[in-house]
Structures are given as structure tokens and as C-alpha cells.
């Protein structure tokens, strides 16, 4: 085997292993001198660089185009970086390979630790099942034996009785009694008499906080408290905590601490008492639980909340629960949804009963774009009267074909719609509508004009603005700040970042609160004093383009369900107003709902979960989903997993696949973690893995973007690596923390770091390391254990600058399949011009306005050779070359190339062996094969000797997520 365990990690959502004929490197083996195709008759062997005299007219142009391409290929070959070694090193490696290959006993792995050697491979581990169950804190609530306890039943009953006189409880009860859900006494009856119930109701009517309490209190009152264990899922970590805290407060208790209400989110919990309690958790926790107990035996009621969001996790859980009901006849399931599609869920669960809780909202008056333009007399800066579709704006901009069809329909209907407007609106308004129509960008000036209009003409009340993303929020904030009116103290504006205290505070009298938010404020956070809602009309939507194997993120029109939620936000305290920034024709074409996430996301991680949960064939299982993903997407995910060697030909988990499925991260990050452990650089690799799978710890405050960029650049310490920048930030934070809280806060403040995120990354690293220890890859659960970090300090020490002549402009970056791509502005390499090598690796690639690499690291040729895909050696004209996956080509003397190839083969077999029979590398024994091979490779990478003349031009991507820079 050669490349199976190689590969520097393909982008989470991008990259592919498919070959391409587009990258000109593939064509570089064509003979120069004879052009192919329709210009085959041209003589290109022309040393003078001038076209042959017999050519005429257009032929001359074609000749130069062809000649230019051939010259470029020739220049490329000349510019290839050279991979070479000095003689002493060559000798060392020859000796090493000899000894390794001759030493048969080395293949027997003399240095396993007791645990690793005792096991005959991963299959035994699989049979052991959750041997390390007890060690996992996330499972604590689940893994309990529950039996009826009559004396507990009595004491719970007494306890609830006595609460009724508690002043705090009484005060909260007065609030609760006013909620629409409180009057719905049949809720409990329906839950008791049915296995599944769908509860729908307006946001704020009291589903999340009340339904769980109704179930619990009913059981306690009936003297059955000890048998009641209600678990309620939340789509986000933050909502699980805040709802649990709220419910505890309503019960005049503290959250967790063995009381009646608690929460469990990944790596963080406040658990309630074992019996007679309510637990709020994230949907992911239940999926994790299912691995240890597929029947969730100890749970009496499963409440699945916010299922209308149709997140990947929630849809998968619905599919599993549907089957589970056949096995667990005693399990009660309550499905809760904010909006109208209750029927769909009910139908999915064999037409189970539904109950609707009406809202208590005030009427909200709605306005469309034509009304807003008329009332503000707004005129767009872009005075092109041809509608956007006539300017060709929308062509090919949509992520899905259905959207293109909608656009065509819009185009056709517009003239007719414009005529109907004439009766009610002025000429100039209709003209402005045409100019505004459908532009990709949200017109922030229009929003500014509307805010001014509201502030000057309307009564008091907070304004909530919905925008698709952070960039718009930041720009609108800048626009507001530039206006005297909004700086004067009469207005306070803020963005709905979760921890922003201002968002929830009522402003002093006479001050107008303006909150700018993304769709998170539709259901997740409730800002009580909102009276005016401005619905920007767009929502950021990620999609997965199965044709190109790339994720996209575009601002799309909202769905009617989004628009309805947004409107509802305006009527919580008094009658309100909602301004939708799309016209009536657009409104008539909006989708009813957003497409479920399962239909627009890559499915690799999910496929591994299906295998590890033993849910049957992947395609068969996914067919059972509420809205199954396309066959194409499923097949692509299976193919990618086979390429990664996580699945074998019959779709069974391989040894690698088994480990990847058990790690709570997406497969490419899982592979990174395993390699970090085996190569002895655990701590920094776990920092990178945690940040790639959760989020990076940097935040960018409004108005401080440039300063934040500068700080990140400093933290990068010239590594040309976003990944190492996070490592540096994390290390700095840990050091500062050791000096005390004040230093920690200062370090975070100075470097625009979130201490909460860093803490979460720290916890995740601990979880990964613990997992690696239990599976036998390392010998300690401490990520910083010296034995796991023998190579963590390895740094490239000798670098020859190869592109020092490019200093002034941004580099051009290419990938194999996409051609030119951009480095994302948040990357430390965004404006970097002074690279040492011409190759970058990346993790996340996404198509938004262009294709962006969100994170990248410069890599050396030896790193690519050892951790890229298959190596091929060949003679290309007169040049001896070594190539990775046949597309990253280096010049290299044949002798060196063969040595590298042999060494890489040893590495691959070593890694395969280790993954089959996990055992830490014995770094103390320098004669062991493992130690010798890895040390030799690290030595080569860190003391790289290479020369190159100029830079390669366009190149391409493949097994490795590499891209070249020019
Ligand atoms: O789930 P649903 O949207 O139907 O409502 P809920 O989350 O149960 O909230 C019911 C009421 O409790 C809301 O109207 C809020 O006023 C209040 N609540 C709160 O004050 N703090 C929370 N963390 C959650 C809810
Ligand atoms: Mg809710």
C-alpha cells in the first residue's frame, strides 16, 4: 500500500481525489514542438519566438496563443522546485532502509505497550463495545439503572407541594400562568395517551420551558416521580444552558446540583438528580449516547425541540427515533416545532396526534419593498434602470437549479407586476424598484434610510434588523456610526452576539435601541422590547455542490417560514411593524421552507456515524429520512470515505474508519488527530483539530477588523500558517493563564481572543487525548505529555527564499479543480507575498462570491512527498522528477527520488500497522523501526535543502488539499 494512509487531509467540504485534465501540469508531458488539436499543423519549434511567415490573419493569433502555452509549460518545468539530499544523508537513509527491511523481527512490533499487544486488532476492540463507557462524563446521565423508588416518589411529591408556598416559585408561577401553553391542560393527557405527539406553537408561547415541566410535575403528582426522566434536545449549546437555567429559576432552584433540572452539552454539564428530573441537552449528545445505549433505556420521555430548523442532527435523530419506537414501546416522544409544518412531522410518525398552541402576539403590520421605497423616497446610488436580471446579474449565481428556475419565472412576470404597481405607487418608486431589484448585495443605504425614517417618524420601540452575515452587520454598523444622528446618544445600536448584554437591556427613555442580527434572532434569542423589524430578505445558506464536490455559501432569499418568524419578533410587547425588503412579486415566489440541511451538506461524517451506530446500509438508512438526500450525494460521500480508506469495498468500516467514526470530529480531522499521536506532535495537532472542528478562538469586534488582523499576523510569528497561528495563540493563552486571571484577560483582550472558546478547545483536546489513550495510540491522557510530544517542537530550520522577487502584490493561488482561488481575508496569508515555498495546504474551501480557502499553511516539498498521495518517479523529457498524486511535480535526481519513495512506503506500512494495532511509538528505543523511520522523515522535513529558480505557474489539486501560489 502506498497512499492509503497518506494525504494531508482533504478540505472538510472541498477538494476531491478525482483526476483532472484541466491542470496544465497533466498536459505537460505532451511533446512541445507539435501542438495538438486544431492547431496541429503549426510549427512551434521556433527559437526566435516569432510566428512563421506563411501564417495569415487569425492563424497568427492562434499561433501565439499556442506558443505562449508551450513556453509556459517549458518555463514551468524549469521552475520546478528541486528536491535533493546531501550524500551523508543519503547514506544514512540507505542504511536505515536496509536495516528496517532486513530486520524481519521489526515487523513484529517489539515495542507495543501491554494494552496494544494484548489486543488482536480493532475488531476485538469493537467487540468490547463501550469498555470505557464509565470514563466518559458525557454519558453519565444516560448510563444509570433506573428502578421505581416509592419513598423517593413520596418525597418528590412533598417537595413539589412545599414549593407552592415558596415566594420565588409563586412569583414565577404568575408569569408562567400567563403563557399560552399553560392553559393547555390536554397537553399532558395527549402525551400520556400517545407514544408520539407533535406540539406546534408560536415562538415564546412556552413550549421549551413548560412542556417538560408539565410532564415531570404530572408524574410527581401521580406518585410516579422516580420513573420520570425527561430529556429535551436543543439545537445549540447556548440554548440548552439558558433554558435549563430558566426552568430551574421557575422552580426556585439552582440548575443541576442534583435538583430537578439540569443540562448536558459536550464536555460541560450541570446534571440534575438521577430520577424525577428534566435534562436539556444538545441533539449531538443524544447521538453520542446512542453509541453506548442504542435504546436509550433509562430515558422515559424524549422531547425533540426546534425540529422545524431541520438541522442535520435533528433529522438524523428523527430517523433513528422512528425505528426506536418499535423497540421501546414505553418511550414517549414529543416533537416540538415553531412553525407551520406540523403535519409533515405527524405524517412521518404514522399520523400521530398534533396539538397547536396559539401565540399571544400582538398584530404586526407588514410592508413590502415598494412601500418602503415610497415612504422613504429612497433612490439607489446605482441608477441603472435595467432590472438586475436584464443586467445579467443573476446568471449562474445560484447554488441550486430550482433557484435558477424561480429567477426565470420572476423575470417573466416582472413587466406585468410593474403595471399592477402603477395604481398605488409613484413612477419614481417603480423606477427605483427596478434599480434595486434582486441585486446580490443588500442595499444597506436603503436600510439606513428606513432606520432614519422610523427613528424620526415612529413611536418608541427597539428596531431589530435581520441581515445575512457578519460582513453586512459590520458595514451597517459603520454606516450608522458615520451618521451624527446615531452617534449623538439618542440611539444605541448593537449586534445580537449572544453575550452582548446590551441586546437584552432596555435603553433609558428617549434612547432608541437598534439591534442588528442574523437569523439567529428568529427563534433562538428573544429580545422582548422589539417593535420594528427590518427583514433584509436574505439568509446565508450553505449548499453542497455534488458536481464539483465543493460547499458553497450564498445569500439566498428567505423562505416564507423565515419571513413569518421575523415578523413575529415585532409583536411581543405591543402592535408592531415589519418591513420586508423584497417586493410583492418576490414574496409570491419565496419557498415555503428552507431546504433541510441533510439535503445540502456533505455526508461523510454522517455515513461514518451510521456505520458505527450499526444502523444498516448507508443508502438504505438515509432513504428513511424525512427528506432523503440525493443518491448522488450519498454515493459521493461513500466514495470519498473509500478513498480515505475509512470504508472497504463492501462499505464496512476499516480499522481506520472505525477509529475515525469513534472520534467526535469529521473524518479528515480525525485522521489528523491519529497522525498527530503517531508522529509525536500531539499537543499542537490537537489544538488545530479542536479549532477546525469547533471554531477558531479569534473574534473580530465591530470596527476593529484591521487591528484584529494585525494581531493575528503578529501571533503567526511568520509561520505563514493559520493553523500554527491558532497553536501560538493557544500556547500564549495557557502561559498567560498560569500567571493569573488578570494576565489571561489581558492576553485575550490584546489579541482579540475568546477565552470561552479557548477553554472549550482545551476541554476538547482533553477529550481527544483521553480517547487516544483508551484506544492505545498514546500512553497518557494529558495532551502535553512529553512522550506524546517528542516532535512537537520540530521547526523547519533552513529555508531558501524562492520568490523573494514578488513583494508588492498579492499572490495568485490555484487549485487543481477550481483554477484560481482566493485566500480568505481572515487568513494570515491573505496579503502575504513573501512565501518560502509555492504550496499551501488548506482545510476549508467554500464558494461564496469567489472560491475562498478559509485557512491555509505553507508546506515544504518533503512534507508534501511524505504526507501527500501516491508518489511517482519519472523522466519528463530530460528532467528526472518525483510527483505527488501525479500533479505536484518536483525535480529530483532519480536516486533521491527512489530513496524518498522507499522511505514513504515504510512510513505508510508503519502507520497502517499502528492503526490496525494501536500502540504508542517507543521514542526511547532509537533502534526500533518506528522511531527510526519517523525520525529520519522529520529530520528531512525540518532541514530541507532545496533550490528553485522561478515560480511555478498555475497548478491543481488532488488527494492532498494543496494549492499553489504564484
Ligand atoms: O419554546 P417557546 O418559544 O414556545 O417558548 P419558551 O422558550 O418556553 O419561552 C416562554 C417564555 O419564557 C418566553 O416568552 C420568555 O419570556 C420566557 N423565557 C425567559 O424569560 N428566559 C429564557 N431563557 C427562556 C424563556
Ligand atoms: Mg422553544
TrEMBL record:
Reactions accelerated catalytically: ATP + H2O = ADP + phosphate + H(+)
Broad class of where this protein is predominantly found: other
Pfam families: DEAD (PF00270), HA2_C (PF21010), Helicase_C (PF00271), OB_NTP_bind (PF07717), RNA_hel_CTD (PF26026), WHD_HA2 (PF04408)
Key words of the record: Acetylation, Activator, Antiviral defense, ATP-binding, Cell projection, Chromosome, Cytoplasm, Developmental protein, Differentiation, DNA-binding, Helicase, Hydrolase, Immunity, Innate immunity, Magnesium, Metal-binding, Mitochondrion, Nucleotide-binding, Nucleus, Phosphoprotein, Repeat, Repressor, RNA-binding, Telomere, Transcription, Transcription regulation, Translation regulation, Transport
GO molecular function: ATP binding; DNA helicase activity; G-quadruplex DNA binding; G-quadruplex RNA binding; hydrolase activity; metal ion binding; RNA helicase activity
Enzyme Commission no: 3.6.4.13
Protein name: ATP-dependent DNA/RNA helicase DHX36
Biased composition (Basic and acidic residues): 23-33
Entry keyword annotation includes Amino-acid biosynthesis: no
Domain Helicase ATP-binding: 188-358
